[in-house]
Amino acid sequence: MIQRILAVSVLVISMSGLLKAQNAQPAYFGPIHGGRGNLLFPGAEEVTGTNAQIEEIKAEVLKSNEERSAAIKRKDKAAILASLADDWAYTNERGETLSKEQWVDDVLDGNLHFLYAQHVDVEWHVFGDSTVVETGRSNSILVYKGKISHGPRRETAVYAKINGKWVQVSLHVGFIPAEQRDFTFPASALPQ
Amino acid sequence: MTRLLLASMLTISLAGLVRAQGVSANNSATIAAIHKVQEQETQAIKNKDGAALCNLLADGWAYTNQMGHVMHKAQWCSEMTNGTLYFPLIQHEDVKYHVFGNTVVETGRSTSTMVDHGKVSFGPRRFSITYVKLDGQWKICAYAVSLITNEQ
């Protein structure tokens, strides 16, 4: 009898999970994130302080990111490429480096897409009038070549003002390895 | 220990050669200035001079390591000069400089040996280091390091 009740309970919980999944709206397109890519979110902590000039810089960088998000939505390859610097430096969480053309092709071909986006602990680091570094933690769920990646990840995006226009010059993404062998070696593991 | 130190110095020199291969003529002056900052950084660490090391880092310096930990510059300068965090072996490969006016991003692969709070990390890792020219002086403004997961 207990086994039967347990089996029914498990079935009900499983079905309720399925229903929730079907009804869930992807947060990726929600009002906070508003689009694809790495965003400088309003309200993020301002590590390097704030003043009128910094606020202006932040607004310009945000606008540039919104333009890239819009370009991705309408699959405008030329506009996406223009929002990334020539010689853009990209490293993903698997340790791969891609050129901007390769990355854009992956996005437009559907090899890389996001099911859910959540960035937290975002910090702005504004250096002078032409360099901005954004750091944060990503809990986003993405699909890359048919495989799902849940993260969590740490991200560092760098923006520079080139010829009067803000572009992303670098994006470095790394996993937060909750369980892995690194740093578990004792000091005696060092070569003599 | 001396052998280890010599091996480290040799590796650093070799890393310099690899770096030089990626330098275009147009950006050579910028890269040379970045190399100078790197030499000063090495010297400050060797001298255990936390103030000199911190002076090379921009205020608001951003650091994320391969464990996903973030650190502020005062803590970094302290740990790098008090023995908490050190590199018995430095080995960088596939180093590239991406020059964008007053912003430079150095990327590469690291198989350096790192000791942090008595625990050893061998990597391999990918790193991105960002430099910015502020008031005529190049400063390091961000480090991002991550593990190459399929090689762990």
Describe this structure in words.
- The complex is a heterodimer of chains A (192) and B (152).
- Chain A is an alpha+beta fold and 192 residues long.
- Chain A has one domain (25-177): Nuclear Transport Factor 2, Chain: A.
- Chain A is built from four helices and ten strands.
- Chain A has a seven-stranded mixed beta sheet with strand order 1-5-6-9-10-2-3. Chain A has a three-stranded antiparallel beta sheet with strand order 4-7-8.
- In chain A, α2 runs antiparallel to α3 (77-83).
- Chain A is globular and about 50 Å long.
- Mean pLDDT of chain A is 77; it is low at 5-44.
- With 152 residues, chain B is an alpha+beta fold.
- Chain B has one domain: Roll (Nuclear Transport Factor 2, Chain: A), CATH 3.10.450.
- Chain B has four helices and nine strands, in the order αααββαβββββββ.
- A six-stranded mixed beta sheet of chain B has the order 2-1-9-8-5-4. A three-stranded antiparallel beta sheet of chain B has the order 3-6-7.
- Chain B starts with a helix and ends in a 5-residue tail after the last strand.
Helix % of chain B is: 25-40%
CATH fold-level topology of chain B: Nuclear Transport Factor 2, Chain: A
Uncertain segments of chain B of ≥5 residues (pLDDT<50)? 1-22
**Overall pLDDT of chain A:** 77
Strand content of chain B: 35-45%
Specify Rg of chain A, calculated over alpha carbons.
21 Å
CATH fold descriptor of chain A: Nuclear Transport Factor 2, Chain: A
The share of residues in helices of chain A is 25-40%
> What count of structural domains of chain B?
1
